[in-house]
Every structure is written in C-alpha cells, then in structure tokens.
Write the structure tokens for this entry.
Amino acid sequence: MTVRVRFAPSPTGHLHVGNLRTALYNWLFARQNQGTFVLRIEDTDLTRSHSRFEEELMDDLRWCCLDWDEGVDVGGEYGPYRQTNRLNLYQAHSKQLVNEEKAYHCFCSVEAIEQERQVQLATGQPPRYSGKCRDIPPQKASQRVKDGATAVVRMRSRQGIVAFQDIVFGSLEMEGSEIGDFVILRSNGTAPYNFACVLDDVLMKITHVIRGEGHISNTYRQVLLYEALGFQLPHFAHLSTILGKDGTKLSKRHGATSIDEFRQHGFLPGALLNYLALLGWAPRQEGHEILTHEQLTAEFDLSRVNRSPATFDWDKLNWVNRSHLKKVSPPLLTELAIPYLQDCGWIPLEPSPEIKEWLEDVIQAVFKYLDTVKDVVQETDLIFRFDPEKDLSDPAVQEALSKKGAVEVIREFHDRVQGHQILDLETYQGVVSEVKERTGQKGKNLFHPIRVALTARSSGPELNKLIPIFEKGQHLNLPARITPVKDRVQAVLDHLHDYLRNQPGD
C-alpha cells in the first residue's frame, strides 16, 4: 500500500502549534514511508475563510521546511485541492445519497432547530435533530425543492454500534442512535466538514487520517458516510490535546500559540518542530531528544504516539531551542540576529563585512545567555545603549557599590584608564593588575566594581570579551554610537559623584 496522508487546515486564522504538530506527524509519516503528503485547504466556511490566512499558513509550513507533494499551489492528480473548487462533487454525491434514500431533504428553519435544541438541553437530553422531516416522501420533498423551498440534506443515521480502530486510542465505538441525522449539504450548496472531508479523503486516496483528538466525535459520523457511500475506511490516528501548564487547552493566555509569533520570537524552525514532535511522542533511546529533521524522520513511529494529553512547557522549548542554537555557525547566527538589531536602530540596513565580523564577536560574547535569537536584543543592550543615570539606580548595582572597597576600585580604575589613549585587551589586563595591586581587592570584590565602571550594570558578558568589542565598535559606522571605555568610566564616576562624596575617605 502506498501511504497517502493529508494536512487539511481551514484558512480562518493563523497556524498554531496544534495544527503544526498535526502537519509534522503527517509529514514525518509520509517521508518515513516514502509516501505522499497532500496539502488540502478546507475553506467551505465562507464567512470566516480568507485567502490571506491561506498564504500565511503555507508560508509558515515552508519556514518549517515541511514541503508537500500535492496541493493548492503545486497541483496533483487528485485536485483541485481547495474545497470551494469541489462543490460540484459534494452536490453530486449528496444527490446520489438522496436518490438511494440514505439521505433526505430537511425543511426545518434554523429557528425551529434551535428551539428544539434548547428544549433538549433543558431536559438533560443530548442535542440532536429529532428527524421531523425524515418521513417526508422523497418525491414530495424533491418537488418542494424544485418549487424553491429552502432545504438542507441530512444523512439518515442508523441504529446499532458505530465503531472504528484508532492507531493511538485503540478500539472506539458509540451507539448510532446517539448521533442523529446530521447535515451533509447546506441550503447554499456547500458541504459541512464531515461530508466534504470524507469525499475528499476518498477521492484523493488518503490511506491514513492523522488529526487532532477533537475530531473523534466527527469520525463516528464519517464512518456512517463511508458505509453509505460504499467506501473502505482509512486508518485513523487521533493526536492527544496539547494543554497549558494549568491543565486547560493551550490558548493565547498561555503565551504565543501562532507559528508566526514563534518565528518573530526568534525560535529556530528545526527546534520548534523538534519540540512539537516530543509532545505526545518520544524516541526509543532515552535522553536522545535533540533531533534534526533527518533524525526525526528516521525515528518517528506513529504507533508510539501517546494518548495522554501533552503539556506545553516553555522551559523545555527554550532548552531545545538553545540546544539547536549551539549547532548554528557564528556567521549564520549573526545573519539571523541582524534583523532584530536593525529593528532597534542599532545596525545599518546594509551592514558592511567589517560590521558583520564585529557582530560575530558581539553575539559570541552573549551566546550563553540566549534561549532564542531575539534574546540577542536584551543581552547586547549594554553594548549599544549606555545610560548610567538610569542603570546605576538598579538595586543590584547599588548593592555592588555598597561592598567594602568597591568605591576605591572604581576610582583607581578610572585613574588608570585615563592614562591610556587606547584600551585594547592587553592594556586593560595591565590596568586591572595595577588596580588589584593598589587596592588589594581580588575576585568578585575587584571585578564587580570594574563591571559597574564599564557598563553601569551588575552583570553581563565576560569583561575580557567586552573590552575588544567596545574598542573596535567605537570606530565602526553604526547608527548607535558605541561609547569608548574612557568615556564610559568617566560618565559612571560623574553620576556617582553624590554617592561617592558621602563615602568614607572623601
């Protein structure tokens, strides 16, 4: 059997993590089995579907390197791949079911259906259509339609057990009488999800339907449609729900959920897919969780997908992304970071090779603090923005200044620095040795005050890495001026004047 799977999103909003995990599992299963991955657009919800969302979701899939073999933009043997271009197929098959008396026309108004539903809910009954129009003679119903009466087409649900085997959830069944007669064709000629989905899957020869757990209730209706149309059931695999840490279904209140948001936050596509693959599945080798596209394809096993809900853990996602960042070359990481620095106005729109080379040093200096590429903005802020008046008010900085000997170290460092025209790394190290000898301070008591003197901050990259960055950066043609070390130390001392004046020894 040639494996054929599909990802069939509705273009009614942004692609989110649940959708992407579904697309990923389908893609991995297809690639692992040398099968076909189909991208189908289910846009029969005319009021909410929009071509903009369709383009965005395809762009998100491309960003994640999830390619498709057949689909709306590449065509294929079983197209068209957009449901609004397949309405004639749905109408023809619904007519067939009506002619075979497996479906019927229903003339009940929307208001009447809703009133019936409210009565059922009030009496504790599951809401389903009562079957009021079920026994209208077919010829009489057809004549009413010809005369212009508004009608939908409903499937005749049968009595007895409706069952199917699910790869993830095992054997599932429900009583057919609980399903009710559901709509398969609206009065405007469009098909609801269940009918369109079944026909599309059959006509596109889909062998495995891999989708979210929320579709299990739909599957019972679809089983009835497969039976009525005389088609063989595909293999079903329903994926567990993704939850937030509070145990509720993942939503906007838990943080970013759309793929574009993760993209803008600086997550790598490979890392995001790696993490999503682990939401409900795990590789056989324990502790072997950081996986490339190729490794995921080789190791993925649909039969090992867990039916328990998966919890979205931001800390673990950050860890996975950090692990993938370690594999990115410095030049490529620099290219990825540049747009974020340009948005801050710190880097020119067309940075020179010299600026890019310097940026590599900048990014490597802060690399260990990065969870995402966007974090480069926060971590390099002390390089591109120097504001001692604001930063020295930080409680952590004030605590560092309150340590015994801190003021003396800053004064001594200032005096030694002012005696040099250029402060390269070798000169800086010499100055530090002099300050250490003259003040008798060492370790944190020496370097914490020096850090404050250089950056007006209490923490940051290694000072031995910062000095060359400051020295070279001040000579580059950058929109954001890199303040020279001598000016930095002088400015810190000036802003500390009132503080220092009250210290012992003044």
Notes: The mean pLDDT is 93. The two ends are 88 Å apart (CA to CA).
